[in-house]
Design goal:
The complex is a heterodimer. Chain A is mainly α. In chain A, 72% of the residues lie in helices and 0% in strands. Chain A contains nine helices and no strands. Chain A has helices at 4-12, 16-38, 41-58, 68-91, 107-118, 121-131, 137-144, 148-172, 174-180. The longest helix of chain A is centred in the last third of the chain and has 25 residues, at 148-172. Chain B contains eleven helices and eight strands. Chain B has helices spanning 10-17, 23-35, 37-53, 67-80, 87-102, 127-130, 144-152, 157-160, 213-218, 220-231, 236-248, and strands spanning 164-169, 172-177, 184-188, 207-211, 260-263, 280-286, 303-305, 315-321. In chain B, strands 2-1-3-4-5-6-8-7 form an eight-stranded mixed sheet, sandwiched between helices. The longest helix of chain B has 17 residues, at 37-53. Chain B is globular, with a radius of gyration of 22 Å. Classes of the chains: A mainly alpha, B alpha+beta.
Chain lengths: 191, 334
Amino acid sequence: MTSDEALMLEFQRGSRAAFEELFARYRKPLYGFFGRRLNNPERAEDLTQETFLAVIRSASRYEPRALVRTYLYGIALKLVAAERRKFLTSSTSGQSAPELKTDGTPDCVLWVRQALEKLDAPEREILMLREYEQLSYSDIADLLRIPVNTVRSRLFRSRLALKSYLESEAKSNPALRASAGQPQPGRRGMP
Amino acid sequence: MSTNSHAIEPKELMAYLDGELPPDQAAEALSHMELCPECQTLVADFRSVSQALMAWEVESPEIGIPSEINAALGERFQKREAPKVSSARLENRVVTSRWVWAGALAIVCVAVGLTLTLTSRNRKEDRSTAYPRMASIEQYLMPANAEIAMARSAAPESISSDAKILVLGWHGYETAIEGRNGFVCVVERSWILPFNSAEFWNPKVRGPQCFNPAAARSILPLTIKRTEMVLAGLSKAQMIDSIKAGFDNKELPVPEPGAMSYMMSRTGYLNDAVGHYAPHLMFYFPLTDKASWGADLLDTPVTMNPQFQGGPEPITGFVIPVGKWSDGTAAPVI
């Protein structure tokens, strides 16, 4: 299978097929990235598209010094930050935050969302980049412009905090205990 | 967890699970963990957290490329007036770049041209001069227990627990543990790479591998032979000549039918470009046309390993990534 970086270089040289392959590989992961951070499917779709548009516009500036994966999430992080700023501005003029949609959401997913909300924002971002986007410590450090050791420390703290939430929730909700500990087939997480 | 009585700190244990430790430390972590119930508990905790997080899946609507993107693409290509690259040409380029990478590709299997190598920002150094000669032998050796643990980690426990284990000593590979199932597990070093690899002498390379019985008889002898020659101080040219002669006079075997190996360790370090790489299986044949396996095509998971391929061993190896590490946990998809 062709690497992402080789595809990106081919796209730079004019291959539409290479872009289409990158789109196929990353559309769902990027949608998941935005979906988990914005709780708004429409905006998730819009920003996924924005990410690819940014890739098209800046393709000539891409240098194979970073993994394409990291490059894409770097763009996505900037878009999320801009979206949050936009929301902050609009909320001062009377708009309210999107409601956490819970209809039909399984308990174990609600727990995960609530548990993540309890973390400090920087720790939450690191944990999510590691667990959901599968970025390495050094990639996360580069993206967030913090030392690798800080990434490791915050990741450690956030995992311990989540473990603590998991245990307390499981004690009060046996059904959650049964579902929360079950691996999800076909998904990648911490081994 | 108290760290006083542990060789590995909890954060390092977490880093090990994340595949973030260098191979020697990873092997140390693995061997410590096997004997430490407290660490096993911590590891189980980390895994349960991760598994719980994985419950949050985000379903993405199935759509094609949106019209806005199509328009942007059209605009870009119109501006460039670049010739469209045909899929055949793209494929050729990919294959070519794979061959370029082959030199840098470490260990045996990691064929997978993974052109990604191009990229890593940590690899700015010129690899052609990074390892110009053999380092001191100590740098290639490991503590025996750590090497045994690393060798076993190449395959699932159901295989490796009954496998014969070899470890590298001052004079070559030695049997550390006798086996019962015909499999042989070993940690290969950098000199199993192609002779023209820039990392041929990279002392950091550790390639855990478990050969099935057919490969233990017909592929493992190459590892043994190369190692003996390296430790005897032969030059690359002398080694190549000796291997050629070995095949000519049938001292070295051709791959037996069914020869394959497991490389599913999360603790290995296959080269500077790919690090731990991804878990995979290897299949060996006498020189074979890769088209017969559909290898190296744009969308196939099969890659031809350039490790041997007549340079000089008359052997073709195919690599197929698998989705799990040997401990049964999920691995990155390559």
